[in-house]
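Researcher: Last one for today. Full complex below.
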Amino acid sequence: MDPSKTPKTILEARNLGFQYEGAEARALRGVNFGVERGEFVLLAGPSGCGKTTLCRCLNGLIPHFYPGVQEGEILVDGSNVTSMPTSEVSRKVGYVFQNPENQLFALTVEKDVAFGPENLGLPRSEIRERVDWAMGITGTTELKNLAPYELSGGQQQRVALAGILAMKPSVVVMDEPTSFLDPVTAEEVMKAVDDLRLEHGITVIVVEHRLDLVSRYADRIIVMDSGKVVADGTVQDVLDGQFDQLTGLGVGVPRVSQLWAMLKRDGLVSGQTPKVVEAAAEKLGGKLST
Amino acid sequence: MILVEDVSFEYPSGRGEALSGVSVKFEPGEFVAVMGENGAGKTTLAKHLNGLLRPSSGRVLVDEEDTRRTSVARLARKVGLVFQNPDHLLFSETVRAEVAFALHNLGYAGKTIENQVEKTLGSLDLTRYADVSPFLLSGGERKRVALAAVLAWEPEYLILDEPTIGQDYLQKERLRNFIVQLNSQGKAVIIITHDVEFVAEAKPRVVLLSKGRVVGEGPADRVLSDADKVASASLVKPQIAKLFDQLSRFGFPRDVVDVHRAKQLLEDRLREVSVHV
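Model: Here's the assembly. Have a good evening.
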């Protein structure tokens, strides 16, 4: 396809609202945003703020599987998710659940990863290729003959991610995708996802409390509170302009940013808040060598 | 005290030893973090502490009782284990009923149960959800309900498997204060975690596991600032430790892992610098 003819916006929420059946309050209220193709968006906010509900809207689980009242609309690639069959939504939007056990069901890891591509009706050789590729980049190849229930939480999380990547969706939505992973593996997985984005133009939306893990990759952060969007901008701008609001909401700002904010409050440093260790070391190093 | 003595364990499915010659002890009132890579054997070790698993060789003594000769029901009064995944534990219709369940089983009187439930819900910021179904709550909230359900009977040793997963920063702060409070009542809290930033701030004693063996043990600032130790367990140094590695050329110590100590050290130096300018 001619890239100049592809619309830049891949996801759009227009005045989106949702109330679960039996719940007393709305989980989402008047949510508006657009996401461009190839963006890496971090979705943050206190526990219970509506992040997971928003993810469920993005891939059509809401309203197809969760009963409740929806307002507004959500568009993927220009089509309304609500009126698309879930099978079609799932080709475009891959969803990695918070709890990998909700996702894995096949008898072996390999079969689980192959399930998605098989259901897309792809030729056998293509399925083989995708499964090997997805297991390779998530480091799950050696687990291929094991049953999902035999795996540790972290291993399950990587297998769940492999299953989604094998579908080659245009958007990957990940709800705390590395929470069960040890830090080295977590960094490897985030790096692999970012490489995919850069190579294949996949759009990535990650729900994460820990900014330190993703602030290196994310172009943008959307912060939610009580079902509403309360901040939306580059990670740098939000760290600089809304730092106290972020910490007030329990967003885990990088420790080096926190340290900087404390020093800044005492008038000892000034300027942009560093979001990664290297930047903090450089800024402080500069100060200390004067 | 819980004494783990030269414990090895192999699961029946036989993929080699999950624990190999592990010796470690947990004292009353202590705060310990067991850290290590995925599959290091952390959860397997935790399940040995309340008798859910029994060693293939070696032994585990809980206040001098050998877990191989004691029922799980009896050990559970002393050793409470909160699983990583709250959905393995939750099943009641309301949060209140969930928290009361074990108290009923342990045979407490109605009034005691009521008081205990209210107290526990309050301390974990769950009172407003008392009459709600646990399954309507978010992942992070369900995790706190699972914790409340175990905490309600006040076990002497509390083991929390990955308690910070899905918790925002404020909830982590609350968890930390809560652990300090439990410690001050003489209760031991053992957390299993990958969360180096949480450990760097909360500063428990750290036990590092890798491939079923203990590869390091000591105070959090010493262990987490030791590059070799940290790498051996697939962890990464906390951000502040990485920063102080790079600042060591200005004469700063390397074993700084938490924001508050970092601030103190930098504050003094930055003031000197600004005076000279």
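Chain A has one domain: 7-253. The first helix of chain A runs from residue 51 to 58.
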